[in-house]
Amino acid sequence: MTYEQTVRGQNLYALDSNLQRLLRRGLGDDLDRWVPTLDAFGDWVGDTVDVQAEHTHRAAPPVLEPYDRQGRLTNHIRHNPLWDQVAREVYERGAIGLNYGTSPAPYTVTFAIGYLLSQADVSLHCPVTMTGAVAYVLDRFAPAEIRDRYLPELVRMDGAALTGGTWATELHGGSDVGATTTVARAEGDHVRLTGLKWFVSNTNGGLAVATARPPGAPEGSKGLGLYLVPTHIDGAPNSFRIRRLKEKLGTTGVPTGEVDLLDSWALEIAPPPVGFKLMMEALGFSRIHNAVGAAGLARRAFLEAVSYLSHREAFGHNVLRYPMMQDELLGMLVRLESGTAMAFAAASAFDEAHVTDLDDDSSARAWLRLTTALAKYQTADDANVLARAAIELIGGNAYTYDYVTPRLLRDAQVLTVWEGPANIQALEVLRMIGNRAPGFEAMTERVEAIRSVAPEALGNITQRLGRAMQDCRDAVAHVRSDAAEAQRHARRLMVLLADTLGAALLLDEATHDLAAGDARKALVLRLYMDKRFPETIARGIGPGGDWAQHHFDALIGYEPIEADSHLLRAVG
After folding, report:
1. Measured CA angle at 200 (ends 154, 399), to 5 deg
2. Is 427 domain-assigned?
3. Which residue range(s) make up the domain with 534?
4. How far apart are CA 245 and CA 247, in angstroms?
5. 468, burial (CB in 10 Å: exposed 0-12, middle 13-18, buried 19+)
6. Residue 450: inside a domain, yes or no?
7. How does pLDDT run across 362-381, given as a tens digit for each residue?
8. What is the pTM of this model?
9. How many domains does the chain have?
10. Burial 494-518 (b: 16+ CB within 10 A, else e)
């Protein structure tokens, strides 16, 4: 592959053979139905959406206009025309609606849309994420009369769709949703909500789900119900006030506000204790979008770096010929491909689980929650590492807003805190590998199945993965046997499990590709293993390893590499 000097204007789906292969493996022949949609979406995102994102971020962020000329409360948020245009079109193109109707797409397709969208604008992906979460909860769990009335407003593809929000965070609680103090008071066939929601993104979307506590309900999460809050009732603003819009480090295109619920009209989706569980379902869905979005942002950072450097000369040579530059780009590539594999493993797990029972403790359900937590943590970290690396490799130009890279770095940071930071994901991992949860057993089954069919040529790597799995077994046994120590080790355990899962997923891909004579993914796997599970402590210093730089152009160009015996001996 020859990289153009500028990423903007290119079709981000057509350019991404790694995504295409992942989707083909996951969806099989069913992907053929959706290739035209994804291809057209990738073309649109790479140009129109990217132009809008730069304009909105640099020149025209949203503005709160709380009152009209007569002093009446309107809660109006004014967006620039380019934002309004693409915000309508992303739903016309099916970012939500494709999953519904008589012949719905697998959710993996719309997760792929989120991955592509975040390569241009994470700010636009945020409302898509929450709208998808609200639609999912209404479709799977809401009473029929609420589902039938409101779900069509979210999934329509005629340019008039409402968008969603998840109103859970309060000032005193943060990630502790169980500390909610918002009150839900019954009033006839509806309820009234009173309280302050502190971090409300897509503030003016149209429909939100909010946690609240009815009078007399117990403290903590068991006392929470879940309620649907329209921003307007019969065309008039609902009774809440947007106090202000937050000034944020990044994602400046999406309005994030503080919302005073002032006896706001709402409908009960679920009473306590089910309400908290449903909000966690919404957040779980959003975590997968967070993971694919982070992988998409990492992909854009890699594209910016390799595209610029492919056309950059210094000291008389193209900079891609310098070994240190090659090492850094290969490091970015390995993180990108392992993280993307994890994100789409979570997407596939979501389609496989098809959750309708909140008390389901099956292996598929536990696997979904475990892989989602691991992918959310790992990809958010990867996005930050790659965004920073792109700036460093490009140099001073990348520190200016003539390039997209400063916005990528700013936007990447939110991915670590949206839908729960790393410590919250580590607590979720503890829940899924606890003595009564089959999450680790589900992971073990999948990893061992991958190892069992790996080719003999990758025997050394397969053995190293086996040793990593034994480390995981020992670590899980320890935290299961000592509850007092479990939280102390939770984050380290999460990192170990994520590293091991990344290796297994790359091994699965390498096995598949080697069967067709292509050793490229096997080289990526070997680089990953040397980074995450080194056999020595020499930090890669010493003889050997020149095989990677010998195949550098094919690796970064996503070109097949012939699986000859000499190469496989060096890699496997």
Report:
1. 105
2. no
3. 433-571
4. 7
5. buried
6. yes
7. 889 999 999 999 999 999 99
8. 0.96
9. 2
10. bbbbbbbbbbbbbbbbbbebbeeeb
